Amino acid sequence: MVMRIKVQYICMAFLYVGGFPLYAQKVTDDTISGKTHYIDEVTVKASVATRKVTSTTPVQVLSHRQLQQQGITDIADALRRFSGVNVKDYGGGWRYENRFSA
């Protein structure tokens, strides 16, 4: 009985999907007519809204020299040097390959 229901569902799906090409658009000729169409001049104006600075955000940079001096060898170790960043190792068994060379 279950097999018969599955066959009925499959047949209904084919009938449903098979009707889609009937609703397709008519194919139009894609050849260029050789006519030139002109459009009116377009003027674009833009302005930048000035914003009042309400707070400052500190920027932290690690230079190549600092990376070498501090013995930083991977990105996780480099990120640990920034304030407000926590790097956690959950021991997922993954291996990090360093393909960066400076």
UniProtKB/TrEMBL annotation:
Alphabetized UniProt keyword annotations: Receptor
InterPro entries, sorted: Plug_dom, Plug_dom_sf
Ranges of residues in domain TonB-dependent receptor plug: 53-94
Domain of life: Bacteria
Name used for this protein in its record: Outer membrane vitamin B12 receptor protein
Organism, as annotated: Bacteroides eggerthii 1_2_48FAA
Taxonomic lineage of the native organism: Bacteria, Pseudomonadati, Bacteroidota, Bacteroidia, Bacteroidales
